[in-house]
Amino acid sequence: MKATLFSIPGSHPALGARMMLEHKGIDYRRIDLAPVLSRGILRVAGFEGVKVPAIRIDGRKIQGSRQIARALDQLVPEPALFPDDPEQRAKVEEAERWADEVLQDIPRRVIWNILKRDPRGRRSYLEGAKLGLPVSVAAKTAAPLVGMSRRLNGADDETVRADLQSIPEAIDRVDGLLRDKVIGTARKNAADFQIGPSLRLMMTMDDIRPLMEGHSAADYAMWLVPDFPGYAPAALPDEWKPEPQPERLSG
Predict the structure, then answer these.
(1) Which of 76, 77, 157, 221 has the maximal Cβ count within 10 Å?
(2) What pLDDT digit, counting tens, does each position of 24-45 carry?
């Protein structure tokens, strides 16, 4: 069995899909698409939606990391991405849903806002990309796509400022999931592959990393995703950022 994974350079959900494929031992080919342009290419490729991750496998076309997780468990049952115990599975599914619907949007919007303001990090998020052209060329022509991506993802200043204020609460939630062993165990699950890449993308940004340091969530991200391309120097106003908070040891 072999899969084709359609991705975008630096996409944290697409990285989660890659990790699930590797977790299952499924051979795959990766095709990286340029942001914005990817929407039309995916439609031409026969997908119903316009977002990554998208995979072709066993004659099926599947989009969205939650949908991919379930499809992979059907195709290759072991190692399973969800626990057998119904109560534990419900906890994993709720963590996965929150990560998909809430958490992953935070670093996505923040990074597009940063890269629009400050071009210094643009090339770094393209490292290792399989775009069919040199990284240097892609970086030099990235400005219009960065601006369009910022708009398409709703990464305006007001929204990103609110995102930054929401990060301490999100990190507290991840710390709690780790304490409760919903994620972060030796038997990785679908919630790990949703949450870990989002946290790891956050840690590439100097505007966010200080809010995570000293938390179990930061150590977890580095353990699950040791390598993530990209580095963005601080570019957002200091008054947008909340004060770093220590990890709460209970509750």
Answers:
(1) 221
(2) 999 999 999 999 999 999 999 9
Cα–Cα distances (Å) from 82 to 37, 85, 95, 113, 193, in that order, read 34, 9, 12, 35, 11
According to DSSP, residue 192 is labeled H
Residue 2: strand pairing partners: 27
- Our measurement of the distance from residue 118's CA atom to the centroid of its chain's CA atoms, rounded to an integer in Å, reads 21
| CB-CB contact of 71 with 65 (8 Å) | no
pLDDT in tens, 113-151: 999 999 999 999 998 888 877 777 777 778 899 999 999
Residues paired with residue 31 on neighbouring β-strands, in sequence order? 6
- Nearest Cα to Cα of residue 201 among 55, 32, 14: 14
Give yes or no for a cis peptide into 79 (omega within 30° of 0).
yes
Given a contact cutoff of 8 angstroms between Cβ atoms, the answer to whether 1 and 74 are in contact is no
Q: Please name the residue that has the structure tokens 């062993």.
A: 181
SS3 of 55, please? Answer: strand
CA 174 to CA 138: how far, in whole Å? 35
Q: What does DSSP say about strands 2-7 and 27-32: parallel, antiparallel, or unpaired?
A: parallel
Run of H or E including 32: strand 27-32
> Please, are residues 109 and 160 in contact by the beta-carbon 8 Å criterion?
yes
Residue type, 150: R
Report d(CA 79, CA 21) in Å as an integer.
11
pLDDT score, position 250: 62
What does pTM read for this prediction? 0.94
